[in-house]
TrEMBL record:
<dbReference type="Pfam" id="PF00174">
    <property type="entry name" value="Oxidored_molyb"/>
</dbReference>
<feature type="domain" description="Oxidoreductase molybdopterin-binding">
    <location>
        <begin position="71"/>
        <end position="146"/>
    </location>
</feature>
<protein>
    <submittedName>
        <fullName>Oxidoreductase</fullName>
    </submittedName>
</protein>
<feature type="signal peptide">
    <location>
        <begin position="1"/>
        <end position="26"/>
    </location>
</feature>
<dbReference type="InterPro" id="IPR000572">
    <property type="entry name" value="OxRdtase_Mopterin-bd_dom"/>
</dbReference>
<dbReference type="InterPro" id="IPR036374">
    <property type="entry name" value="OxRdtase_Mopterin-bd_sf"/>
</dbReference>
<keyword id="KW-0732">Signal</keyword>
Length: 172
């Protein structure tokens, strides 16, 4: 028979082990079941394929969608965008950089300070006016700032950061 001290010690070790395994499990990312639409690389701690974090559309949507209604220089009138808060997406992959470089399908790149995501509530839009955005019309993913929420956002600086046809995000 094991003594009370040994049992307590073993129980403590088991609890610690379960805590470590649970923390490691929490830092995992499922593999996409559909064609990936986004690959995140760079200074990230949570990956699912070859040191990258790949997401299909359902994975992005499962992170929680929010809506932003705003005018843009590319559309007539107010447009409703729905997507994932980029700040939340960066937390999901354990991003530790201070900026990201976003690359579009046509190889357009733009650099965005990481602080923009929380400060301005930037989203990675998946839908426009309730519809998924096709590649031929700025989809499947579009970096959207809530331009109407702050006069500062209605400038070329923020419009240039608003990449469409987003395919990759590199955290630096």
């Amino acid at each position: 028979m094991l003594g009370a001290k040994v049992k307590t010690g073993l129980m403590g070790a088991l609890v610690a082990f379960v805590g470590i395994v649970g923390a490691a499990y929490a830092a995992t990312l499922a593999a996409p079941t559909e064609r990936p639409v986004l690959t995140i690389t760079g200074k990230i701690g949570v990956t699912n394929k070859d040191n990258t974090a790949q997401f299909d559309r359902p994975m992005l949507e499962s992170l929680g969608m929010v809506a932003v209604e705003t005018t843009t220089p590319w559309h007539e009138g107010k447009v409703k965008f729905e997507g994932v808060p980029v700040d939340k997406l960066m937390k999901q992959v354990g991003a530790t950089g201070d900026r990201v470089v976003v690359t579009a399908l046509n190889d357009y790149t733009t650099e965005i300070p990481m602080e923009d995501f929380a400060k301005y509530k930037v989203i990675l839009a998946i839908k426009r006016n309730g519809e998924y955005m096709p590649v031929r019309d700025k989809g499947p993913l579009f970096i959207i700032y809530p331009y109407d929420s702050d006069p500062e956002l209605k400038s070329q600086t923020y419009y240039a950061r608003s990449a469409w046809q987003v395919a990759k995000i590199d955290v630096r």
